[in-house]
């Protein structure tokens, strides 16, 4: 039996139904803070654009944006945000494509910023996806990725991979039951350590402009599912591209760790002796 694939785009469509201006503002601040670089007139490639929120943020920051996603419903979500906020704009292109399709990637060229947050670990070929994405960074550009942190043990990555695979194959009533169990456990766990669950839900968007409810569904069903520890990511990117790490935000549990790398600028060729 073939491995299942989570309906990412369907989840993003529900997210867009309640997207607020406040969430868009926070997403824009989040992208700006993570990159730490003026995006005006820069080219920005959003690999696995999902809802399109990060692409929208980059366009609001002045970048010329190219967004693509493998999932048709995710492409439709990104197109919808483009239609709402930048109708008829030739500075934002949206397409369907795969980071694993090298022939497609060869048509794109290189970009000042290659951004893929929480995507490459869902391809089923995470290391190949990272390699393909990194090739699209132009000299002096930024490579920005968010990858799930690997954890061992009974509640670690291997266990969650099995749960996600089961979720994607389960009938909808079983998925709904598991969602209810997980959400109840998560909120009760917060209360048990003195956190206010209602405040957390209200303020959840203050991180990246996202939705607690939709992120929970994405976490439970996000399959294929890969993960790596920070050392593995750093070693792979350095060995493959010789990029320099400029920023990292490490998740110590099972969440997404963020990495910002800078591609080196080519040195001029030495003058030939006469």
Describe the structure.
The protein is an alpha/beta fold and 274 residues long. The termini are far apart. It has helices at 8-17, 21-35, 53-60, 72-85, 102-105, 126-134, 157-169, 172-192, 197-203, 212-221, 230-241; strands at 43-47, 64-69, 92-96, 111-117, 137-148, 244-249, 256-262. A seven-stranded mixed beta sheet has the order 3-2-1-4-5-7-6, with helices on both faces. Helix 1 packs parallel to helix 4 (72-85), helix 1 runs antiparallel to helix 10 and helix 6 (126-134) packs across helix 11. The chain has two domains: 8-151 and 226-262, Vaccinia Virus protein VP39 (Rossmann fold, 3-Layer(aba) Sandwich), CATH 3.40.50; 157-221, no CATH class.
In short:
The protein is α/β, with parallel strands linked by helices and 274 residues long. The protein has helices spanning 8-17, 21-35, 53-60, 72-85, 102-105, 126-134, 157-169, 172-192, 197-203, 212-221, 230-241, and strands spanning 43-47, 64-69, 92-96, 111-117, 137-148, 244-249, 256-262.
